[in-house]
Structure formats: structure tokens, C-alpha cells
Design a protein that fits this description.
This protein is an alpha+beta fold. The chain has helices spanning 43-53, 123-135, 148-152, 175-186, 190-214, 225-248, 255-289, 298-307, 314-372, 376-430, 432-450, 477-495, 517-534, 554-563, and strands spanning 2-7, 15-16, 21-27, 73-80, 83-90, 96-100, 112-113, 118-122, 455-461, 464-470, 504-507, 537-543, 564-569.
Length: 582
């Protein structure tokens, strides 16, 4: 139970709580004006301080993260497992808490700070200890476990969103957190809810992978099985062909010099062939020129001139004969020269033929070497291609395996999920007595408020546990909030069977917004009566103008003022919890 909430600032109004039923009342006074309000007096801030001292994250304590409260230390006097403790936490140095009390039975050992005269521990360690002391939580490494901060938030709800859904303590609470923690509080097998969420994570991962694949973001992971099999066959053929080529590949150390020599021989052969052609043409001309010329006799010449009417003198005839003899000598000399040139050219042609044949044979040998051998660079390139093809083949085979695993994974998850749901159903049946107790408590609580029992159902579906409460005529906000009231009361009634776990239930005045005065009266009397029967502590914040005095039973009306542990007023700026307004 909570004994008191205090601060190191003198303006703060200490709040002391008793066992059983407690009321924090915000009162409108005669001196207050219509412009004054009871909002901001500190009722909700009081709940924030309690959460703060119980290890709440500072980002969730916006009400305390203001300049006016900088470097304030709040103290919470609390009883855990029958032992009294005082918890200190500072708004500036909020990463640790200071603890006074006997911690010898705690699950972790803490060194005593002689200067502070208290035990100092980190907030995370503190919430771990609270989980053990208030909810008997064990330290587990699983991802989805019940947590102290989530569990305590069902007993000390804060913020308007905390009252809309009985099974959620804030509107953005994730499904797994809601299922795991409610299952734990109701005595269900929360580990099944945890395992189911792990399966959901895997399903979500597969869905995201498939989605990414359809958008072309994971072409290396998932694709068409048929296309990948075709690609695999093609790559296997290329790998085999390249490997065979690599096996027969011969490297010649002088490959490039042989290649250059073959090119030089080709050029040389072409030059000789050109000369050969020229010589052949010259030889042909010489052969034509060496043909026997027809000699013209003097008689023929005389006959020609005679027919023309001319008669040569004897001396002229003689000179013609001499000229013809001279011409004949020149022709003979020319023929002799041509014959000698023709012999020379024929010898050159024969030599050129031999050179062409010899050089061609040599070039053919070199080309034969180039054909059957390769350069080391080409061999390396061929090796690299084989490696590249093998890598591509391995990638395709991996993609095929991934896709097969993907499809198998979906099937395996379906089977695993179905088996888990079957185990959950069996466990649910085995815990029927315990669950019936929860239903009986809720039925009685709702019947106390509305004369008819409500319905508290727990079903098991594809998403796991499905919790639902219903109260007839539950159409207004007020009746909706009373669902949460009845459920919270059910939880503390169930937990009262445990020793001081958690031993306290706190409701802000929000839970009574829009609720009919008759139901408010019944709810308060029900809570007060259950604190006596079950031995837990109930703390509620109320505004004075909604206290349904006329609807209380006479006995409770007479006792009500005794339950008020502190009154805040809007008459003065110092009438609230902090002693000032901001």
C-alpha cells in the first residue's frame, strides 16, 4: 500500500493515505469565483508523482517536466511485502532512485551509500525489483514479457486515454502488450500470448519480404521459381562449357611475340607477292617484245618506189642496204638483252615463289601455335569468367533455396500457429475455474452498479486472446468508463489473493466523467466495501460537486468525510498540491 506522497519543497502539501478507501477531494469554496477551476489543483499531478516514484519514464511524465518543478525531489512512502520503504526521485537527476528500508530480501543486492544514508539504484533496476515484489515477476530474456510498468498501469491509470478501453492503459498500447499483460493478470498462460506474437513477427517479416519482392526491391532474394530454375540451367551449361575450355587451354609464354612475328611474316609475304606480280608483268612484256621482227629487203623497197614512179640510184640502194644491216644488228643486240633480262626476272620469280612458300609455311606454324595456345592473360580472363559464372549460379541456387524456404516458412508458421492456438485452447479449458472467478467478480461488480450483470468474455482467435466486457445500455461515455471501473476492480479482487500484489488501486476523477450520480455512488460504496473484504487499498480523486451525497446510503454518507485524506481548494493559488499554480 501507499502510505504517503511527499516532497522536499515546503509548499508541497503532503498526502497521507490510510488502509482501505481513500479520497483526494478537490473542493469548490465560497470564496472562489466562476473563473476559478479545480483543474490544475494537483489531483492528476499526484498520480504522476506516484508513477514517477515507481520508475515511470520521464517522457511519460510531461506534467513534471516543467521549469517550475526543476530539481524537485519527490518521496513515496510505500509498504512492500510487509516492509516499509521510502523512495526518493529527483526531477533533475531522474536516472536513479534513493531507497530507505530493509532490502535484505530483495532479488538484487545494492551497495549502501553512507553519504546519502540510503541505497542508490538505477531506475531500470528499481522497476525490476518492483516487478518481483508487487507482481512476482521473474527476470526473463524473452522479447514479449509482462512488465512492471505495464502491469502497474492497470492499477494506477493515468490520462484520459487510459479509461476508454478496460484492457488498454493507453490508447496506443500495442496488441501484444495488451494481450500478454492482461493474460498475466487474469491467470492465463501469458507465455502462449508471447509465443503467438513472435509468430506474428515472423509472419510480418515474410509479408514485408514478399511485398518488397513485388516492388522489385529484393530481386536477389525472392522471385519467380520458374524463371530462377531456367536461369540456373543456363548458368550450369555456361559453367560446364567454360570449365571444359579451361581444361584444354594451353598457355604459351611467348604468345604475343609469336603473334607479332606472324604479323611481320604476313607483311613480308605481301611485299614479296607485290614484287612477284611486278616481275611477272615485266616478263610478259619482254616475252612480247622478243618476238622475231620481219626484215624488209631492198628489193621490196625498190618495188614500192618503182610503183611510185621513182628509180633509186645505185649509190642510194647501197646506203639503204647498209642501214638495214645496221638495224638488224641493233635488233639482235636488243633481243640478246631481253633474253638476259628475262632469265634474271625468271630467277627472281622462282626465288620469290620459294620465299613466299617458305614464309607461308613458317607463318602457318606460328598460326597453328596461336590456334592451339593462348596468352596467360586470356587464361586468367577465362578463369575469372568461370568464377563469375559460378558465383551467379550460387546466387540463383541461393535464391531458389530462399524462395523454397519462404514458402516452407509460411506453411511452417501456419502449422506452428495452429498448434499454439490448440495448446492455448486446452490451457484455457484447464484454467476455467480461475477464469470463472474473474467472470463472477465482474458480473457482481457490474450488477452492483446497474442491477444486471455485465458480460466478461475471453475468446481465442487467430490473433490470440480476445478480451471483451459489456454492460447493457453501454452507449454513453459514462457507462463506458464504468466498464473500466468494473474490470479494474476485478483485477484487484483477483490479485488480493496474493500477498501485497500490488495491494493498491487508484482512479483519477476522469473515470467518473459523464457517469450518472447513482452509479458514482454505487461505485464508490462498492470499492469501499471491497477494500474491507479483500484487504486492498483504493484511492480515488473526486471533485466536490460530483460527490453524490444524496445517493449514498445513510451509513456511507455519514462515513464519507472520514475517507477524505486531503482536500485541495481553488480559493487561493496555494490551495493545490504543489502550493502554487503554473
Amino acid at each position: 500500500m501507499i502510505r504517503a506522497v511527499r516532497s522536499d519543497h515546503s509548499s508541497f502539501k503532503e498526502v497521507h493515505f490510510k488502509e482501505g478507501f481513500n479520497v483526494v477531494l478537490a473542493e469548490r469554496t465560497k470564496e472562489s469565483t466562476q473563473k476559478d477551476t479545480r483543474n490544475g489543483l494537483g489531483k492528476t499531478t499526484l498520480i504522476e508523482i506516484i508513477h514517477f516514484c515507481l520508475g515511470a519514464s520521464t517522457k511519460h511524465n510531461e506534467g513534471l517536466r516543467v521549469k517550475e518543478l526543476e530539481d524537485w525531489t519527490f518521496m513515496l512512502d510505500i509498504t512492500l511485502k510487509g516492509k516499509d520503504y521510502t523512495i526518493y526521485r529527483n526531477t533533475k537527476d531522474f536516472t536513479k532512485v534513493k531507497i530507505e528500508g530493509d532490502i535484505s530480501a530483495w532479488p538484487i543486492k545494492i551497495d549502501y551509500d553512507k553519504i546519502e544514508r540510503a541505497y542508490i539504484m538505477k531506475v531500470k533496476e528499481w522497476t525490476s525489483v518492483l516487478g518481483c515484489l508487487m507482481f512476482d515477476l521473474e527476470e526473463k530474456r524473452e522479447k514479449y514479457n509482462p512488465s512492471f510498468r505495464s502491469l502497474i498501469s492497470y492499477f494506477v491509470r493515468r490520462g484520459v486515454g487510459a479509461f476508454h478501453n478496460p484492457f488498454k492503459h493507453y490508447s496506443q498500447q500495442r496488441e501484444f502488450d495488451m494481450q500478454v499483460n492482461n493474460a498475466y493478470l487474469l491467470g492465463l498462460n501469458w507465455e502462449y500470448a508471447s509465443e503467438l506474437q513472435a509468430i506474428k513477427d515472423k509472419e510480418h517479416t515474410l509479408q514485408e519480404l514478399k511485398k518488397a519482392s513485388t516492388q522489385g526491391l529484393l530481386t536477389g532474394f525472392i522471385g519467380s521459381l520458374g524463371e530462377m530454375e531456367a536461369e540456373r540451367v543456363r548458368l550450369e551449361d555456361e559453367v560446364n562449357a567454360s570449365q571444359d575450355q579451361l581444361k584444354t587451354f594451353k598457355v604459351h609464354p611467348q604468345y604475343y611475340s609469336i603473334y607479332e612475328e606472324a604479323n611481320d611474316l604476313h607483311k613480308e609475304i605481301q611485299d614479296i607477292k607485290n614484287k612477284y606480280v611486278i616481275n611477272a608483268q615485266i616478263l610478259h612484256k619482254y616475252e612480247e617484245g622478243i618476238q622475231e621482227e620481219k626484215d624488209i629487203s631492198v628489193d621490196n623497197v625498190q618495188q614500192i618506189y618503182k610503183e611510185a614512179g621513182l628509180i633509186f640510184h645505185e649509190s642510194i640502194v647501197k646506203r639503204i642496204k647498209d642501214t638495214l644491216e645496221f638495224h638488224k644488228t641493233i635488233v639482235l643486240n636488243r633481243k640478246e638483252y631481253l633474253r638476259s633480262e628475262m632469265k634474271r626476272i625468271k630467277r627472281e620469280i622462282e626465288q620469290q615463289k620459294y620465299q613466299i612458300e617458305t614464309l607461308s609455311d613458317k607463318r602457318a606454324q606460328l598460326l597453328g601455335i596461336l590456334k592451339t595456345h593462348g596468352a596467360l592473360e586470356e587464361y586468367s580472363m577465362l578463369q575469372n569468367r568461370v568464377v563469375t559464372l559460378k558465383t551467379q549460379l550460387e546466387e540463383v541456387e541461393s535464391r531458389i533455396k530462399n524462395l523454397e524456404s519462404f514458402e516452407e516458412g509460411k506453411s511452417a508458421l501456419k502449422i506452428e500457429k495452429e498448434e499454439l492456438l490448440q495448446k492455448t485452447h486446452r490451457d484455457y479449458q484447464e484454467r476455467k475455474i480461475q477464469l470463472d472467478n474473474a467472470r463472477k467478480f465482474f458480473n457482481k461488480n457490474s450488477e452492483s452498479l446497474y442491477s444486471e450483470p455485465g458480460v466478461f468474455s475471453i475468446d481465442i482467435g487467430k490473433i490470440g486472446y480476445k478480451f471483451k466486457v459489456d454492460i447493457k445500455r453501454a452507449g454513453s461515455q459514462g457507462i463506458g468508463y464504468m466498464k473500466t471501473f468494473c474490470y479494474d476492480l476485478t483485477l484487484i479482487q483477483l490479485r488480493s489473493n496474493y500477498a501485497d500484489m500490488p495491494g493498491v488501486l487508484i482512479h483519477d476523477s476522469t473515470i467518473f466523467d459523464g457517469v450518472d450520480e447513482r452509479q458514482i455512488a454505487k461505485a464508490l460504496e462498492l470499492a469501499a466495501g471491497e477494500t474491507q473484504k479483500k484487504g486492498f487499498q483504493y484511492i480515488c480523486n473526486l471533485n466536490s460537486d460530483v460527490v453524490p451525497y444524496n445517493d449514498f446510503t445513510e451509513k456511507f454518507r455519514n462515513e464519507f468525510d472520514c475517507f477524505v485524506c486531503i482536500k485541495f481548494t481553488d480559493a487561493t493559488d496555494g490551495g493545490g498540491l504543489l502550493g502554487f499554480r503554473y
